[in-house]
Fold this sequence. Notes:
By secondary structure, the chain is α/β, with parallel strands linked by helices. The protein has 5 domains: about 5-140, no CATH class; about 160-270, Rossmann fold (3-Layer(aba) Sandwich); about 285-440, Region D6 of dynein motor (Helicase, Ruva Protein, domain 3); about 475-600, Substrate Binding Domain Of Dnak, Chain:A, Domain 2 (Up-down Bundle), CATH 1.20.1270; about 600-745, Hypothetical upf0131 protein ytfp (Roll). It is about 45% helix and about 10% strand. It has 29 helices and 19 strands. The strands form 6 sheets. The chain has a 5-stranded parallel β-sheet with strand order 2-3-4-1-5, with helices on both faces. A 4-stranded mixed β-sheet has the order 10-12-16-11. A hairpin with a 2-residue loop joins strand 8 (about 470) and strand 9 (about 475). Helix 1 (about 10-25) crosses helix 7. The longest helix is centred in the last third of the chain and has 32 residues, at about 510-540. The protein is globular, with a radius of gyration of 30 Å. The chain starts with 8 loop residues before the first helix and ends with a strand.
Amino acid sequence: MYTSRGLFERDKLIFSSQMTFQILLMNEEIMSSDLDFLLRFPLQPHVVSPVDFLSNSSWGGICSLSAKDEFRNLDRDIEMSPKRWKKLIKSDCPEREKFPQEWKNKTPLQRLCMMRALRPDRMNYAIAAFIEEKLGAKYVEARTVEFSKSFEEASPSTPIFFILSPGVNPLKDVEDLGKKLGVTLGNGNFHNVSLGQGQEVVAEQAMDTAAGQGHWVVLQNIHLVKKWLPALEKKLEHYSQGSHPDYRVFMSAEPAATPAAHIIPQGILESSIKITNEPPTGMQANLHKALDNFNQEALEMCSKEAEFKAILFSLCYFHAVVAERRKFGPQGWNKIYPFNVGDLNISVSVLYNYLEANSKVPWEDLRYLFGEIMYGGHITDDWDRRLCISYLEELMQPELVDGELTLAPGFPAPPNTDYIGYHAYIDEMMPPESPYLYGLHPNAEIGFLTTTSENLFRTVFEMQPRDAGASGGATVTPEEKVKQIVDEILEKLPDDFNMLEIMNKVEERTPYVIVAFQECERMNYLTGEMKRSLKELDLGLKGELTITGDMEELQNALFLDQVPRIWTQRAYPSLQGLSAWFADLLLRLRELETWSTDFVLPSSVWLSGFFNPQSFLTAIMQSTARKNELPLDKMCLQCDVTKKHKEDFSSAPREGAYVHGLFMEGARWDIQQGIIMESRLKELFPTMPVVNIRAITQDKQDMRNMYECPVYKTRTRGPTYVWTFNLKSKDKPAKWTLAGVALLLQV
């Protein structure tokens, strides 16, 4: 409990998992080899699931498990009795259910391994249930420690350190407690210093006075005065003894964004009681919080009271949506933006001024001001800007005042009422928390939960001691494990492409041929560095070379199944672990080898296999422009989604190219109707059929009933943007914009 008050919500389960695993290892209740397998969880690549209720990657996990003695025939059992397994997997809380047949008798850790393959999105809950079973319920209960309780432990030598979160002000707790104890600004025994330029002297004077007379000192935002922190540490240490017994220090700082950005001295952190304060989560809490910025008086200040109140409530909903949508990761926003209460307050002031100055509600002006300036001023990504504007077009329209507008499915805009009435309306009418409130599909939550649990396992894995992972009874040292990986990669990597030989094969350098050249060169650049660094590490492991910092970093990455940094700098964006990444690299190499033997455009091109997919898409436009003698800047791409998959094509099309390897996130493609449709539950990344991409002149482009769908290389979206494909839709495009629909080249 005392440790967890200083941890963010997202880190509490990671901490208790690590603690539980170490206790169980020490008591020899679990085997380190089983734990190593659970944390690494190698997936068998390129397998196809034989059952409809498991994805290919889940089946890859089942195949890896079945190769271990304790799980022999698990794959056969699932194939032979799919009904029992389907019932377990489709359950809302599978971690609380019993496994079929003899599998229910497995140890709790082995059951976790099976659950990780079957339902990765439920692993946070499964780990919490595991901790509860092994250590007791109190280790997973979310309990907050009252500030007054923490204060009892503080002393002149033990300051209190607040770790800040956006939208939360811990100073209020300190002031409220101070009032009860007679420590206030008015009484002259409470000093509040907000640090920044030139405030260090003020802070030092306040500490000198407080230590002598028993006052309280609040030092806010100490992360802004990096150079002064060593002096602060000395001063805290100096006054930790011999000062007035009532002297107390409270500090606050924002958490560092990266490990390299940690600047708070260790001495300050070690001597302090650390407390995190986080804003409430969920739509209901955020909407209440947004409305709390106003009062009955504010609601009545405008001459157009009914319009003002309706739009103010809708603005509060918009504010809550944009802030809370962050939790869905890149499907929510491509980048994280610091939307804050100031944006809401200034928007309401603008609303008041515009309603007073106009006889009619200027909807378009308001949408522009809120979406492009007040909130839009934070936004730097074009797709995020489109999302922000789409929300406002849905929430800010005449129906809000004149008719019936639903702010979200099952949540109509409230009738005209008073301040207390609006709060009561939220409590009574707000549907339960779900992605629907944000315009997203429930799959968005599954994706978000899966990512969270993957992060938990990766972090706990990186914290494991490196002494050994046992396999088959024999102990394998980390060096031996790395040596196996080095040998395997070097053995499987083919020779570099002979660029001279390849170039001499070609008579005419068409745009497609140039793309192939560039891809071969990029591949040589990557595989050359892989071979060089691995051979160097191999010599280091044999003792023939001194291990350098770079070699040690490479060794650590290989052991942790991560793609080494020196390789990613030369590679394409990817979120895969090393083993999956290397299997994918070999497929890319094979594809390139086939293409570079005769330079005939493949019947269907694997778009995901390129370092630079944009260059191939541009080559389609260049080829057409040259053939028809058209200017390149007047060309654009037309995407016709076929009804077939790559196996059904034997030759390239007459115009453009067939491409495959695309996945859709946030929706699915209906092959029969040829339009975007709502996702099926638990189908997170349905595969797209082959797409025929051809170049046309911009004047022939038909944008009716089209959703402009962004294409990204990976799930991180943002900087991995490739192109925009126009896809047919019966629904209005805003629906898919709010649902965060995009095409991905790799999942």
